[in-house]
Amino acid sequence: MGDGISDYTKNMVDLRRHMWMAGVEVELRRLIWQIAVVGKYISAKIHEANRKLAGFKNIYGEDQLSLDRSSDEILKNQLQFSGFVREYASEEQEKIISIGTGSEKYIVTADPLDGSSLVETNLAIGTIIGIHKESVLDTGKKTMVAALYMTYGPLITMVYSAGCGAHEFVLNREGEYVLAQENILLKAKGSIFSPGGLRREWLPDHLKFIEALEKDGYKLRYSGGFVPDINQVLIKKGGLFTYPALQKSPQGKLRLLFELQPMAFIMEQAGGRATDGRTDILSLKVESLDQCSPVYIGSAAEVEMAKQYLK
Ligand code: F6P
User: In terms of CB atoms within 10 Å, which of 27, 47, 206, 287 comes out highest?
Assistant: First the structure.
Protein backbone atom coordinates (compact mmCIF):
# COMPACT_ATOMS: atom_id res chain seq x y z
CA MET A 1 0.00 0.00 0.00
CA GLY A 2 1.22 3.45 -0.82
CA ASP A 3 1.20 6.18 1.78
CA GLY A 4 -0.32 9.11 -0.11
CA ILE A 5 1.82 12.12 -0.88
CA SER A 6 5.19 10.67 0.14
CA ASP A 7 4.58 7.62 -2.03
CA TYR A 8 3.66 9.93 -4.88
CA THR A 9 6.79 12.05 -4.57
CA LYS A 10 9.07 9.04 -4.06
CA ASN A 11 8.64 7.87 -7.66
CA MET A 12 8.63 11.30 -9.21
CA VAL A 13 11.76 12.68 -10.83
CA ASP A 14 11.58 16.41 -10.49
CA LEU A 15 13.95 18.93 -12.02
CA ARG A 16 16.23 19.21 -8.97
CA ARG A 17 16.50 15.49 -8.54
CA HIS A 18 17.18 15.03 -12.25
CA MET A 19 19.98 17.59 -12.35
CA TRP A 20 21.53 16.06 -9.24
CA MET A 21 21.36 12.55 -10.72
CA ALA A 22 22.75 13.85 -14.03
CA GLY A 23 25.77 15.28 -12.20
CA VAL A 24 25.14 18.93 -13.10
CA GLU A 25 27.48 21.00 -10.95
CA VAL A 26 25.86 22.42 -7.86
CA GLU A 27 25.88 26.14 -8.71
CA LEU A 28 24.66 25.52 -12.22
CA ARG A 29 21.80 23.36 -11.06
CA ARG A 30 20.74 25.92 -8.47
CA LEU A 31 20.78 28.59 -11.15
CA ILE A 32 18.73 26.51 -13.58
CA TRP A 33 16.28 25.77 -10.79
CA GLN A 34 15.88 29.46 -9.96
CA ILE A 35 15.26 30.29 -13.60
CA ALA A 36 12.65 27.54 -13.83
CA VAL A 37 10.93 29.13 -10.83
CA VAL A 38 10.87 32.46 -12.69
CA GLY A 39 8.93 30.61 -15.40
CA LYS A 40 6.10 30.19 -12.89
CA TYR A 41 6.03 33.94 -12.15
CA ILE A 42 6.09 34.84 -15.85
CA SER A 43 3.27 32.45 -16.52
CA ALA A 44 1.29 34.09 -13.69
CA LYS A 45 1.84 37.46 -15.44
CA ILE A 46 0.58 36.00 -18.71
CA HIS A 47 -2.46 34.70 -16.90
CA GLU A 48 -3.06 38.17 -15.46
CA ALA A 49 -2.82 39.69 -18.95
CA ASN A 50 -5.33 37.19 -20.24
CA ARG A 51 -7.70 38.09 -17.40
CA LYS A 52 -7.45 41.70 -18.54
CA LEU A 53 -8.36 40.61 -22.06
CA ALA A 54 -11.37 38.90 -20.54
CA GLY A 55 -12.47 42.20 -18.97
CA PHE A 56 -10.91 41.90 -15.50
CA LYS A 57 -9.27 45.08 -14.18
CA ASN A 58 -5.90 45.36 -12.50
CA ILE A 59 -7.04 45.61 -8.86
CA TYR A 60 -4.36 48.19 -7.97
CA GLY A 61 -5.19 50.49 -10.89
CA GLU A 62 -1.46 50.67 -11.77
CA ASP A 63 -0.06 51.23 -15.22
CA GLN A 64 1.05 47.85 -16.35
CA LEU A 65 4.39 47.31 -17.98
CA SER A 66 4.23 45.38 -21.23
CA LEU A 67 4.47 41.66 -20.68
CA ASP A 68 7.94 41.52 -22.23
CA ARG A 69 9.20 44.26 -19.91
CA SER A 70 7.67 42.81 -16.79
CA SER A 71 9.02 39.33 -17.62
CA ASP A 72 12.45 40.92 -17.98
CA GLU A 73 12.10 42.67 -14.62
CA ILE A 74 11.06 39.48 -12.88
CA LEU A 75 13.98 37.56 -14.34
CA LYS A 76 16.56 40.26 -13.65
CA ASN A 77 15.42 40.64 -10.04
CA GLN A 78 15.58 36.93 -9.42
CA LEU A 79 19.04 36.58 -10.98
CA GLN A 80 20.35 39.62 -9.12
CA PHE A 81 19.90 37.82 -5.82
CA SER A 82 20.77 34.33 -7.02
CA GLY A 83 24.41 34.61 -6.03
CA PHE A 84 25.50 32.90 -9.26
CA VAL A 85 25.21 35.56 -11.97
CA ARG A 86 27.61 38.42 -12.69
CA GLU A 87 26.15 39.69 -15.97
CA TYR A 88 22.70 39.72 -17.50
CA ALA A 89 22.12 40.27 -21.22
CA SER A 90 18.49 40.53 -22.24
CA GLU A 91 16.65 41.17 -25.46
CA GLU A 92 14.75 43.82 -23.49
CA GLN A 93 17.90 45.76 -22.51
CA GLU A 94 20.23 47.83 -24.68
CA LYS A 95 23.38 46.82 -22.84
CA ILE A 96 24.73 43.96 -20.81
CA ILE A 97 23.95 44.68 -17.16
CA SER A 98 26.35 43.89 -14.32
CA ILE A 99 24.52 42.26 -11.45
CA GLY A 100 25.92 40.68 -8.31
CA THR A 101 29.43 41.42 -7.07
CA GLY A 102 31.33 40.56 -10.23
CA SER A 103 32.90 37.41 -8.87
CA GLU A 104 29.94 35.14 -9.66
CA LYS A 105 30.46 32.29 -12.06
CA TYR A 106 27.83 32.84 -14.75
CA ILE A 107 26.55 35.21 -17.41
CA VAL A 108 22.92 34.75 -18.41
CA THR A 109 21.33 35.73 -21.72
CA ALA A 110 17.56 35.93 -21.97
CA ASP A 111 14.70 36.44 -24.30
CA PRO A 112 12.32 36.82 -21.35
CA LEU A 113 9.12 36.50 -23.34
CA ASP A 114 9.44 35.53 -26.97
CA GLY A 115 6.35 35.88 -29.14
CA SER A 116 4.44 38.00 -26.61
CA SER A 117 2.21 39.38 -29.37
CA LEU A 118 0.64 35.92 -29.54
CA VAL A 119 -0.81 36.24 -26.02
CA GLU A 120 -4.15 37.63 -27.21
CA THR A 121 -4.49 34.78 -29.71
CA ASN A 122 -4.02 32.24 -26.90
CA LEU A 123 -1.18 30.49 -28.70
CA ALA A 124 1.87 29.26 -26.82
CA ILE A 125 4.78 31.59 -26.08
CA GLY A 126 8.05 31.09 -24.24
CA THR A 127 11.23 32.17 -22.46
CA ILE A 128 14.70 31.35 -23.84
CA ILE A 129 17.85 31.32 -21.66
CA GLY A 130 21.54 30.78 -22.36
CA ILE A 131 24.06 30.31 -19.53
CA HIS A 132 27.71 31.14 -20.17
CA LYS A 133 30.88 31.12 -18.14
CA GLU A 134 32.77 33.62 -20.24
CA SER A 135 32.01 36.89 -21.97
CA VAL A 136 29.32 36.49 -24.64
CA LEU A 137 30.50 39.16 -27.09
CA ASP A 138 33.37 39.13 -29.57
CA THR A 139 35.16 36.04 -28.33
CA GLY A 140 34.35 33.70 -31.23
CA LYS A 141 34.59 30.93 -28.61
CA LYS A 142 31.83 28.57 -27.59
CA THR A 143 31.03 29.94 -24.16
CA MET A 144 27.64 28.37 -23.44
CA VAL A 145 27.49 25.75 -20.69
CA ALA A 146 23.73 25.30 -20.50
CA ALA A 147 20.51 26.43 -22.15
CA LEU A 148 16.86 26.11 -21.38
CA TYR A 149 13.49 27.27 -22.54
CA MET A 150 10.02 27.34 -21.07
CA THR A 151 6.78 27.12 -23.06
CA TYR A 152 3.62 28.71 -21.72
CA GLY A 153 0.80 26.90 -23.47
CA PRO A 154 -1.92 24.50 -22.42
CA LEU A 155 0.89 23.09 -20.27
CA ILE A 156 3.94 24.87 -18.88
CA THR A 157 6.97 22.90 -19.94
CA MET A 158 10.69 23.42 -19.72
CA VAL A 159 13.52 21.83 -21.64
CA TYR A 160 17.08 22.13 -20.38
CA SER A 161 20.48 20.93 -21.40
CA ALA A 162 23.62 21.31 -19.33
CA GLY A 163 25.69 19.55 -21.97
CA CYS A 164 24.52 15.99 -21.24
CA GLY A 165 21.44 15.53 -23.39
CA ALA A 166 18.21 17.50 -23.60
CA HIS A 167 15.42 16.78 -21.13
CA GLU A 168 11.79 17.87 -20.95
CA PHE A 169 9.81 18.66 -17.78
CA VAL A 170 6.17 19.52 -17.25
CA LEU A 171 4.94 21.73 -14.42
CA ASN A 172 2.37 19.72 -12.46
CA ARG A 173 -0.51 20.95 -10.34
CA GLU A 174 1.63 20.82 -7.21
CA GLY A 175 4.06 23.30 -8.80
CA GLU A 176 6.84 20.78 -9.45
CA TYR A 177 8.65 20.42 -12.76
CA VAL A 178 8.32 16.69 -13.37
CA LEU A 179 10.45 14.76 -15.84
CA ALA A 180 8.50 14.02 -19.03
CA GLN A 181 11.28 12.89 -21.36
CA GLU A 182 14.93 12.25 -20.68
CA ASN A 183 17.57 12.36 -23.43
CA ILE A 184 15.30 13.48 -26.25
CA LEU A 185 16.74 12.16 -29.49
CA LEU A 186 15.74 13.44 -32.94
CA LYS A 187 15.32 11.05 -35.84
CA ALA A 188 17.76 11.63 -38.68
CA LYS A 189 14.88 12.95 -40.81
CA GLY A 190 11.50 14.38 -39.88
CA SER A 191 8.25 15.20 -41.68
CA ILE A 192 7.30 18.76 -40.65
CA PHE A 193 8.69 22.14 -41.64
CA SER A 194 8.28 25.57 -40.16
CA PRO A 195 9.40 28.33 -42.54
CA GLY A 196 9.46 32.00 -41.48
CA GLY A 197 9.48 35.12 -43.64
CA LEU A 198 7.30 36.12 -46.58
CA ARG A 199 7.62 33.71 -49.49
CA ARG A 200 7.90 36.59 -51.97
CA GLU A 201 11.00 37.82 -50.08
CA TRP A 202 12.81 34.50 -50.00
CA LEU A 203 16.01 34.21 -52.03
CA PRO A 204 15.95 31.78 -54.98
CA ASP A 205 18.05 28.98 -53.37
CA HIS A 206 15.95 29.03 -50.23
CA LEU A 207 12.76 28.89 -52.31
CA LYS A 208 14.08 25.83 -54.18
CA PHE A 209 14.92 24.15 -50.88
CA ILE A 210 11.43 24.74 -49.47
CA GLU A 211 9.84 23.53 -52.71
CA ALA A 212 11.87 20.31 -52.40
CA LEU A 213 10.52 19.77 -48.86
CA GLU A 214 6.98 20.42 -50.08
CA LYS A 215 7.46 17.96 -52.93
CA ASP A 216 8.70 15.40 -50.43
CA GLY A 217 5.41 15.72 -48.51
CA TYR A 218 6.60 17.70 -45.47
CA LYS A 219 3.69 19.16 -43.50
CA LEU A 220 3.62 22.89 -42.77
CA ARG A 221 3.69 23.75 -39.05
CA TYR A 222 4.24 27.44 -38.30
CA SER A 223 2.69 29.26 -35.34
CA GLY A 224 4.72 32.49 -35.46
CA GLY A 225 6.25 31.72 -32.04
CA PHE A 226 9.87 30.60 -32.16
CA VAL A 227 9.71 28.67 -28.88
CA PRO A 228 6.63 26.53 -29.65
CA ASP A 229 7.77 26.04 -33.25
CA ILE A 230 11.18 24.75 -32.11
CA ASN A 231 9.52 22.76 -29.34
CA GLN A 232 7.33 21.07 -31.91
CA VAL A 233 10.34 19.90 -33.93
CA LEU A 234 12.03 18.67 -30.76
CA ILE A 235 9.07 16.90 -29.21
CA LYS A 236 7.95 15.37 -32.53
CA LYS A 237 11.57 14.21 -32.83
CA GLY A 238 12.36 15.69 -36.21
CA GLY A 239 11.72 18.26 -38.91
CA LEU A 240 13.00 21.72 -39.61
CA PHE A 241 12.52 25.31 -38.48
CA THR A 242 13.95 28.05 -40.67
CA TYR A 243 13.94 31.82 -40.67
CA PRO A 244 16.04 32.60 -43.74
CA ALA A 245 17.85 35.57 -45.22
CA LEU A 246 15.26 37.79 -46.90
CA GLN A 247 15.71 40.18 -49.81
CA LYS A 248 15.33 43.20 -47.51
CA SER A 249 17.00 41.64 -44.46
CA PRO A 250 19.93 39.42 -45.43
CA GLN A 251 20.50 38.50 -41.77
CA GLY A 252 16.93 37.29 -41.30
CA LYS A 253 14.98 38.23 -38.19
CA LEU A 254 16.03 36.11 -35.24
CA ARG A 255 18.67 37.13 -32.71
CA LEU A 256 21.80 35.05 -32.57
CA LEU A 257 22.62 35.47 -28.90
CA PHE A 258 19.18 35.45 -27.34
CA GLU A 259 17.22 33.10 -29.58
CA LEU A 260 19.34 31.04 -31.95
CA GLN A 261 22.38 29.94 -29.96
CA PRO A 262 20.47 28.61 -26.91
CA MET A 263 18.11 26.67 -29.19
CA ALA A 264 21.06 25.39 -31.27
CA PHE A 265 22.73 24.19 -28.05
CA ILE A 266 19.61 22.23 -27.05
CA MET A 267 18.97 20.92 -30.57
CA GLU A 268 22.55 19.64 -30.92
CA GLN A 269 22.25 17.94 -27.55
CA ALA A 270 19.20 16.14 -28.95
CA GLY A 271 21.17 14.94 -31.98
CA GLY A 272 19.98 17.75 -34.27
CA ARG A 273 21.85 20.53 -36.05
CA ALA A 274 21.68 24.28 -36.60
CA THR A 275 23.32 26.33 -39.32
CA ASP A 276 23.05 29.74 -40.95
CA GLY A 277 23.38 27.92 -44.29
CA ARG A 278 27.17 27.56 -44.10
CA THR A 279 28.39 27.80 -40.54
CA ASP A 280 27.09 26.14 -37.39
CA ILE A 281 25.04 28.60 -35.37
CA LEU A 282 27.13 27.88 -32.26
CA SER A 283 30.36 28.72 -34.11
CA LEU A 284 29.18 32.15 -35.24
CA LYS A 285 30.88 35.05 -33.50
CA VAL A 286 28.45 37.34 -31.69
CA GLU A 287 29.57 40.93 -32.19
CA SER A 288 26.55 42.82 -30.97
CA LEU A 289 23.51 42.11 -28.85
CA ASP A 290 21.08 42.72 -31.67
CA GLN A 291 22.96 40.64 -34.26
CA CYS A 292 20.62 38.46 -36.31
CA SER A 293 21.31 35.44 -38.46
CA PRO A 294 19.45 33.27 -40.93
CA VAL A 295 18.79 29.86 -39.41
CA TYR A 296 18.08 26.27 -40.42
CA ILE A 297 17.60 24.14 -37.31
CA GLY A 298 16.25 20.65 -36.75
CA SER A 299 17.09 17.12 -37.71
CA ALA A 300 20.32 16.32 -39.51
CA ALA A 301 18.95 15.38 -42.96
CA GLU A 302 17.00 18.60 -43.48
CA VAL A 303 19.78 20.84 -42.17
CA GLU A 304 22.35 19.14 -44.43
CA MET A 305 19.92 19.41 -47.35
CA ALA A 306 19.53 23.14 -46.70
CA LYS A 307 23.32 23.52 -46.79
CA GLN A 308 23.44 21.77 -50.17
CA TYR A 309 20.82 24.11 -51.64
CA LEU A 310 22.47 27.21 -50.22
CA LYS A 311 26.01 26.42 -51.34
O1 F6P B 1 11.48 36.98 -32.67
C2 F6P B 1 10.15 37.14 -32.52
C3 F6P B 1 9.28 36.18 -33.29
O4 F6P B 1 7.96 36.41 -32.88
C5 F6P B 1 9.63 34.70 -33.13
O6 F6P B 1 9.10 34.18 -31.96
C7 F6P B 1 9.01 34.09 -34.37
O8 F6P B 1 9.65 32.89 -34.79
C9 F6P B 1 9.17 35.17 -35.39
O10 F6P B 1 9.36 36.41 -34.69
C11 F6P B 1 7.95 35.29 -36.28
O12 F6P B 1 8.20 36.17 -37.28
P13 F6P B 1 7.14 36.41 -38.48
O14 F6P B 1 6.02 37.19 -37.86
O15 F6P B 1 7.89 37.20 -39.49
O16 F6P B 1 6.69 35.07 -38.98
Answer: 206
Topology classification of domain 192-309: D-Maltodextrin-Binding Protein; domain 2 (3.40.190)
Residue closest via CA to ligand 1's atom 15 equals 197
Cα–Cα dist 23/172, whole Å:
24
Residue with CA closest to ligand 1 atom 8: 226
pTM summary value: 0.94
C-alpha of residue 243 to centroid of ligand 1, in Å = 9
Mean pLDDT, 10 residues at a time, over the chain (311 residues)?
53 92 97 97 88 61 70 95 95 94 95 90 95 88 95 97 98 95 98 98 98 98 97 98 97 98 98 98 96 98 98 87
Protein residues with CB under 6 Å of any ligand 1 atom: 114-115, 196, 224-226, 229, 253-254
Q: Which residues of 141-151 are buried (b: 16+ CB within 10 A; e: fewer)?
A: eebbbbbbbbb
Nearest CA to ligand 1 atom 2: 115
Domain coordinates in residue numbering, the chain: 5-181, 192-309
pLDDT score recorded for residue 1: 44
Q: What is the dotted CATH code of the domain comprising 5-181?
A: 3.30.540.10
